């Protein structure tokens, strides 16, 4: 038997991490068993379904590295793969159930049903449909339908338990009496979710249904439908809920939850793939948690997935993303960060080889500070912005302004660099060494004023990396010119003199 699994999102919004984990586990299971991974679009919610969401879902899945063997864009022998294109198929199966006595026409209005719900609330009991139309004769029901009276089709639920062996949760038992006869086709002719899903899974020969445990209440209804259709149901595996760090169900209040949001923030697909697979499954002890796609395919086992809720630990995701970023080739990182800096107006629309090489230095200087790539904008302010008026917000800057020895260091460094033909890391170090000999200052007393003067900040990347960045950057045709090391020293000393002169304490 060929393993066949499906991921069936509704195109009513962005893909959230819970959906993506479901897709990932289905993909892994199919690839491990040499099976087929099917993408089916469940778009029967006509008001909310949008084709653009469908396209974004497919784009996001491909970005994560999940490919499918059958789907709306690639076809397959069991299509169509959009539910909205399968209405004739659903109606054919609804007729089968109606003719076999498993379904019946229900003429209850919404007002009738609401009165039943109110009665259940008043009696403090769970609501289930009373079955008032269950005993209508076929002739009477047909007559009312022929007269144009609106009606739904309901499934006639049998009595007795419904049991199945769930791969994740183990044996599950559900009493049919608590379900009540449920609608399978609405009055407008559109199928209800549970009915459409069973027909699709049956005809697409789905062997395993791997989905979130929010679908647990749907499973007994679907099993009853398989039973009525005389079909063998697939194997079910219900994945646990994903919780936020506070133990509540993951939602917007925990921050980003949609895959596209993480993409836009600059998380890389390898990190998200690795992180998501660990939301419910753990590799063997001693293996570690940073796993390549190939390693995951070797180790993952659906029967080892935990039924306990998974915790979405954002700090762990950041750590994992940093790990993958540090392992990436520098040229690949340059390509990845370019759009973030270009959108802020710091880089031109296209970069020549010299600009790309310089940007490689920039990325290398700040990489250890990046949890995700969009942070490049904030972390490179120290390179692209030189705002001494904002520098006064730092107490360390005021300390330098009030320290004559610190200002002497800067004045001497400016003099030492004046005749240097090309300021490189090496020539800069040599000039600083001469200033150390002249002033007797060393360590923080020597280097801290220099950092303050060059960057306007008390901390940041290594000066050995910043100096060539400033020098080379000053020669590039960037939208906002970058001051050279000499220009920064000169500007700072002039500014310091003015600030000191204007200080009330002087």
Commentary on this structure:
It is a single chain. Helix content is 48%, strand content 9%. The strands form five sheets. Strands 3-4-7 form a three-stranded antiparallel sheet. Strands 1-2 form a two-stranded parallel ribbon. The chain has a two-stranded antiparallel ribbon with strand order 5-6. The protein has helices spanning 17-32, 51-64, 87-99, 110-122, 138-146, 193-203, 218-228, 259-265, 269-277, 293-299, 314-327, 330-343, 353-366, 376-379, 381-384, 388-391, 395-401, 404-418, 425-439, 444-455, 463-473, 485-502; strands at residues 4-7, 36-39, 103-106, 152-155, 161-166, 170-175, 183-185, 208-212, 235-239, 242-243, 310-311. Helix 1 links the parallel strand 1 (4-7) and strand 2. It is built from 22 helices and eleven strands.
Strand order of the largest sheet: 3-4-7
Please tell me the overall pLDDT: 95
Distance between the termini: 89 Å
Rg result: 33 Å
Number of helices: 22
Low-confidence sequence ranges:
none
Helical content band: 40-55%
* Shape estimate: elongated
Strand residues, percent: 5-15%
Largest sheet report? 3 strands, antiparallel
In total, how many beta strands? 11
Assign the structural class, choosing from mainly alpha, mainly beta, alpha/beta, alpha+beta, or little secondary structure: mainly alpha
């Amino acid at each position: 038997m060929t393993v066949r699994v499906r991921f069936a999102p509704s195109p009513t919004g962005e893909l959230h991490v819970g959906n993506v984990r479901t897709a990932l586990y289905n993909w892994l299971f199919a690839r491990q068993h040499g099976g087929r991974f099917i993408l089916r679009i469940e778009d029967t919610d006509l008001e909310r379904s949008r084709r653009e969401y469908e396209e974004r879902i497919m784009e996001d899945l491909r970005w994560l590295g999940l490919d499918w063997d059958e789907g709306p864009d690639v076809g397959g022998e069991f299509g169509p793969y959009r539910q909205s294109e399968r209405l004739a198929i659903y109606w054919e199966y609804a007729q089968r159930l109606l003719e076999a006595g498993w379904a019946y026409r229900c003429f209850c209005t919404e007002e009738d049903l609401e009165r039943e719900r109110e009665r259940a609330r008043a009696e403090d009991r769970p609501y289930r449909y009373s079955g008032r139309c269950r005993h209508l004769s076929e002739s009477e029901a047909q007559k009312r339908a022929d007269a144009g009276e609106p009606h739904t089709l309901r499934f006639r639920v049998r009595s007795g338990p419904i049991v199945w062996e769930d791969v994740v949760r183990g044996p599950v038992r559900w009493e049919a009496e608590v379900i009540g006869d449920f609608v399978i086709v609405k009055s407008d002719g559109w199928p209800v979710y549970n009915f459409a899903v069973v027909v699709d899974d049956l005809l697409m020969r789905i062997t395993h249904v791997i989905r979130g445990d929010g679908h647990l209440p749907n499973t007994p209804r679907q099993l009853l439908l398989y039973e009525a259709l005389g079909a063998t149901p697939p194997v079910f595996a219900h994945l646990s809920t994903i919780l936020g760090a506070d133990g509540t169900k993951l939602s917007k209040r925990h921050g980003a939850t949609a895959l596209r949001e993480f993409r836009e923030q600059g998380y890389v697909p390898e990190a998200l793939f690795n992180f998501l697979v660990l939301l419910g499954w753990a590799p063997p002890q001693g293996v570690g948690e940073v796993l390549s796609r190939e390693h995951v395919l070797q180790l993952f086992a659906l029967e080892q997935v935990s039924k306990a809720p998974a915790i979405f630990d954002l700090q762990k995701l950041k750590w994992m993303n940093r790990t993958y970023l540090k392992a990436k080739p520098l040229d690949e990182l340059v390509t990845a960060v370019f759009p973030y800096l270009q959108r802020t107006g710091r880089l031109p629309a296209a970069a020549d080889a010299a600009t790309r090489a310089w940007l490689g230095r920039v990325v290398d200087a700040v990489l250890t500070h990046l949890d995700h790539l969009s942070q490049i904008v904030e972390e490179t302010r120290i390179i692209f912005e030189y705002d001494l008026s904002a520098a006064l917000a730092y107490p360390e800057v005021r300390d330098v302004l009030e320290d004559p020895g610190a200002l002497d260091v800067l004045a001497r460094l400016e003099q030492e660099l004046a005749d240097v033909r090309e300021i490189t890391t090496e020539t800069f170090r040599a000039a600083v060494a001469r200033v150390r000999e002249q002033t007797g200052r060393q360590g923080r007393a020597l280097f801290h004023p220099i950092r303050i003067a060059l960057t306007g900040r008390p901390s940041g990347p290594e000066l050995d990396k910043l100096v060539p960045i400033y020098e080379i950057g000053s020669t590039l045709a960037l939208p906002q010119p970058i001051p050279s090391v000499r220009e920064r020293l000169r500007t700072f000393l002039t500014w310091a003199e003015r600030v000191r002169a204007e200080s009330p304490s002087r």
